Amino acid sequence: MRELSELREKVTDWEQYINAIEDARNLYKLGDESLSEDLAREVEQLEQEMEQRELTVLLSGRYDSGSAILAIHAGAGGTDSQDWAAMLERMYLRWIDNQGYRSEIIDTTEGEEAGIKSATIAVSGKYAYGYLKAEKGVHRLVRLSPYDAAHRRHTSFALVEVLPEVGTDADVEINLDDLRVDIFRSSGAGGQNVQKNATAIRLTHIPTGIVVTCQNERSQLQNRANAMRVLKARLVDIRQQELDQQMDEIRGDYVKVEWGSQIRSYVLHPYQMVKDHRTEYETGNVQAVLDGDLNAFIRAYLQSAK
After folding, report:
1. pLDDT tens digits along 142-178
2. What's the structural domain count of the chain?
3. Do 79 and 116 share a domain, yes or no?
4. Sign of CA dihedral 64, 238, 296, 257
């Protein structure tokens, strides 16, 4: 029934778009020059919508049309990498907001001096996973470090994970006997931010060794529910990676991705440029990218991967 509802929604959406094209065509046939500006705006909107529709056609994976879970992890490099992870969190939150999606920060681990060690964000919206999967991988930053007294150039790394939000997917079953549950007090900045009660949850999936921690909510039940959401998403991701690896080995072009193989570089010094190493797409407007302007990079990736 869910699949049927989604198909009906797609058909209705295309019918509305076709009707909009017909309305524009009829407006043109009227030959009224006073309507030329309205017609030009209408055509421009239709063209923009068609570009977006062409992009969604590339999103044909099983989970592409659904929501996503985005996780950011600071790499080696101490404070600089933790600050870089916080910059990425800000960038993605802005992109999520610009797309009209809804974000929910499930878990955050603050850095000792600045930034974050990790963050997990639930992204709700149509095709959120399909678009965000283009961001999965290691992101590299080159800049003059604000945390270096000598103001030397530093290179920082952060890992971005993108997992499908599976919800109540019947294919994902977790045996409670396979889970170890630890309950502890949430860490915070001190003062009123420290939880007096043990509400934070750590789930360890014994067969795979996956560990998920959630502590942002004040309720133990909410943290447990969020931890289960992330655990399910990680298990689905592992299963999908295994299937992809099998197909790549059959094709003979499987290459293991290691930590150092960054997908994108953000250079702030000695010049300014953001470059995606998979597609060779680049731009000199680094600030716009850090403010969430990622659609050109996502489009280039999806087109290259089709």
Report:
1. 999 998 878 889 999 999 999 998 765 556 778 888 9
2. 3
3. yes
4. negative
Q: What CA–CA distances, in Å, run from 260 to 84, 241, 256?
A: 16, 19, 11
Residue carrying the six token digits 């702030």: 268
Statement to judge: residues 41 and 98 lie in one domain: no
Of 195, 194, 213, 217, the C-alpha closest to 205 is 213
Q: Are residues 137 and 286 in the same domain?
A: yes
Q: What's this model's pTM, rounded to 2 decimal places? A: 0.77
Residue labelled with tokens 């209408």: 42
Residues 73 and 166 in one domain: yes
Same domain? 91 vs 162: yes
Cα separation, 288 vs 283, whole angstroms: 10
Domain that holds residue 31: 2-57
Q: Verify cis geometry, omega within 30 degrees of 0, for the bond prior to 270.
A: yes
pLDDT band at 255 (very low <50, low <70, confident <90, very high): very low
**Backbone dihedral region of 302: left (phi > 0), alpha (psi from -120 to 50 degrees) or beta?**
alpha
